[in-house]
Amino acid sequence: MNEHSFKELIKVAQETKDRIRKAAVEIISQEGFFNTRMQDIADQAGLAVGTIYNYFSSKDKVLAYIFKAEMKRRMEIMSDLKEKDLSTKEFLKEFLNRHFSVLIENPHLGRVLVREKDFSRGEKSGQIKEHMSSLIKMLEKLFQAGVKKGEVKEINTHLMAVYFFGSMQGVIEYSLTQPEMQLLEEAPAFILERIDHIFN
């Protein structure tokens, strides 16, 4: 197999995994994780169930992949923003806008991320919690950098990161389960206003 053929296989495999992920988001959002079967995901994706098992041995692994993909997206947003010359406050504003825009465009995804974060069993549950913890750590480092640059007052940066993350999660959970979708549009400015006192 030449290099071109190998790259093409990798591309097809990734496209198939993303197709499965998107189908799983739709089904799990509607039926819940417990009631979703691998066959349901296969039907939604338009694939044979055997194809699903070629990529994921269980629905727990599908769910873990959904969280992993979204964490990767948040990491990419963070990396992209780091390339820009933004103050801590501007960085947080842009991060919030992008974060909530994703959920406004895909409310099914938001429902899965909020409802199912504690449902997956064993090892996969640990991986999901690890993904969430990594985002809090990234936020904490951002606040720490802000303190060093004199843009943020001396605060408990870990507690602020947890508070900031919790504010996002709380708005998402309420707005998507009620539903009150307009809250997702209002949330970025509102959350930033609530922590305005920490900036110099």
Description:
With 200 residues, this protein is an all-alpha fold. The chain folds into 2 domains: 1-57, Arc Repressor Mutant, subunit A, CATH 1.10.10; 59-198, Tetracycline Repressor, domain 2, CATH 1.10.357. Helix content is 78%, strand content 0%. The protein is built from 9 helices and no strands. Helix 1 packs across helix 4, helix 4 (59-82) packs antiparallel against helix 5 (88-105) and helix 8 runs antiparallel to helix 9. The longest helix has 29 residues, at 3-31. The model has no long low-confidence stretch (mean pLDDT 87).
CATH architecture of the largest domain: Orthogonal Bundle
Could you describe the largest sheet, including whether it forms a barrel?
A: none
CATH-defined topology of the largest domain: Tetracycline Repressor, domain 2
Number of strands: 0
Rg is 19 Å
Low-confidence stretches: none
What is the CATH first-level class name of the largest domain?
Mainly Alpha
**Helix percentage range:** over 70%
What is the overall pLDDT average? 87
Strand content: under 5%
Q: What's the domain count?
A: 2
The coarse overall form would be globular
Q: How many helical stretches?
A: 9
Query: Cα distance, first to last residue?
Result: 59 Å
State the fourth-level CATH superfamily of the largest domain.
Tetracycline Repressor, domain 2
- The succession of helices and strands, N to C, reads HHHHHHHHH
